Amino acid sequence: MSPRGSHPIAALAVAAGAVASMPALYARAAAAGQVHPVESHAFTPADAALVLGAKVHEDGRPSRFLRERVKTAVRLWRHGYVTRIILSGAAPNREGLDEPAAMLRVTREMDVPDSAVVLDGDGVTTAASARGAARMGLGSVIVCSQEFHLPRALMLCRREGMNVQGAFPPIAPREHTAFGYAREVAATWKAILTR
User: Fold this and answer.
1) What is the DSSP string of 62-126?
2) CB contact at 8 A, 138 and 158
3) How far are the Cα atoms of 2, 14, 94 from residue 10, in angstroms, in the given order?
4) What is the CATH number of domain 24-193?
5) What does the DSSP 8-state code read for residue 154?
6) Which are the contacts of 138, defined by CB distance < 8 A and separation ≥ 6?
7) Any residues with CB less than 8 A from the CB of 61 and at least 6 apart, and which?
């Protein structure tokens, strides 16, 4: 086939990619101005920081992403933006590990009193974490996760009637980070199509 003949296929591929990315781009546009690096001072006080679950190692240690999320929430708590930290994840997760328990160890290492922490072991998905926060009667949350995750997470929390902001740790140029951005395309489609 000549290069000229391959142009329609390339154009179709580009168009399909654009369509596939539309929900993620919509979520990102809706989150504009509400998502900030944790070291910024752009936050307004909220009822709680909502930390979303992530991988836990077999020995119970939180993964780097999970530890970063908890540290982000603790920073918000120390600066007085929130008075409570919600640790939401699966307990147990697919591997039989307890995500909120792993997160709790981090808050204790950072000298956060248990009285400031709430565990939600039903946060098996981002949507479930959002529903759990709403059931707690929270009117506003600052969601703590990596930057690539926040547009969808904020969309799901808004769907539950909460005012939302997002806080993220420094963005690290790692393979898992690149995978996270790519994964959000499909994950945002799922979030829009399911309830």
Assistant:
1) BPHHHHHHHHHHHHHHHTTS-S-EEEE-BSS-TTS--HHHHHHHHHHHTT--GGGEEEETB-SSH
2) no
3) 13, 6, 39
4) 3.40.50.620
5) H
6) 47, 48, 50, 86, 162
7) 102
* pTM, two decimal places: 0.80
Q: Of 54, 116, 62, 117, which Cα lies nearest the Cα of 89?
A: 54
Instruction: Give the integer Cα–Cα distance in Å for 174 and 119.
Output: 29
Q: What is the pLDDT along the chain (195 residues), one digit of tens a residue?
A: 445 545 666 544 433 444 455 555 665 666 788 999 999 999 999 999 999 999 999 998 999 999 999 999 999 999 999 999 999 999 877 777 899 999 999 999 999 999 999 999 999 999 999 999 999 999 999 999 999 899 999 999 999 999 999 999 997 766 555 555 456 555 554 555 565
Residue 34 contacts residue 164 (beta carbons within 8 Å): yes
Q: What does residue 112 show for φ and ψ, rounded to 5 degrees?
A: -85, 125
Domain boundaries, the chain: 24-193
Q: CA 128, CA 136: separation in Å to the nearest integer? A: 12
Query: 92 phi and psi, to 5 degrees?
Result: -90, 165
- The number of residues in the chain equals 195
